[in-house]
Design a protein that fits this description.
Length: about 190
């Protein structure tokens, strides 16, 4: 007599129901995590851009005092000529030896930044920022940075007063939105 052997070996794997439960839980978790990652990424891009620009401005002021020369900060597409109409461009810092407001071949680049992230937009007055040998600025200037999403919580500002002091905006009242030097909330819209 032939006996039919039955296998008592256990099968490994998931049932269709178990698989559907795992997929549903994964989708819910991704739905909660992905927006938070986007916010963190946007916040980091804004912070990086504002810090790089602030560092260039502070370096320029320090160099002007240290070298007793006029130092210029401006955006530039080619790291040579200034283009104050587009502050999203990389910033250049140089000693303006002949004080003509232009970078000449004999005027070395002292500091450069990368361009502003494509996710952000920087606006500023259509003029050069010039620091004198005493550390003063040619005039008050305000540079505004906003994420392209126009989220006011991502708005940042750099204020340069006539004394040359470079100050970053802060969220003084804790509402999640930075304020300008007068205490008014920054707005990207």
């Amino acid at each position: 007599m032939d006996r039919i052997r039955t296998s008592t070996a256990r099968q490994n794997g998931l049932t269709l129901v178990e698989l559907m439960v795992v997929v549903a839980i994964s989708a819910i978790l991704l739905g909660l995590v992905v927006p938070n990652v986007q916010v963190i990424t946007s916040r980091n891009q804004v912070t990086s851009d504002i810090n790089a620009t602030s560092a260039a401005l502070r370096f320029a002021r320090f160099t002007a005092v240290d070298q007793l020369k006029e130092v210029i900060v401006c955006p530039s597409a080619d790291f040579s000529a200034c283009d104050t109409s587009d502050w999203d461009l990389p910033k250049i810092v140089f000693i303006d030896r002949n004080e003509n407001g232009n970078r000449e071949a004999n005027e070395a680049l002292l500091y450069t930044t990368e361009e502003i992230s494509v996710a952000n937009n920087m606006t500023a007055p259509n003029r050069l920022i010039v620091f004198s040998p005493t550390g003063t600025a040619n005039q008050s200037s305000t540079l505004n940075l906003c994420a392209n999403s126009n989220d006011n919580k991502l708005a940042r500002q750099i204020d340069i007063n006539p004394n040359g002091r470079v100050k970053l905006s802060r969220d003084e009242n804790g509402d999640g939105i930075h304020e300008n030097k007068d205490g008014d909330a920054l707005s990207c819209s």
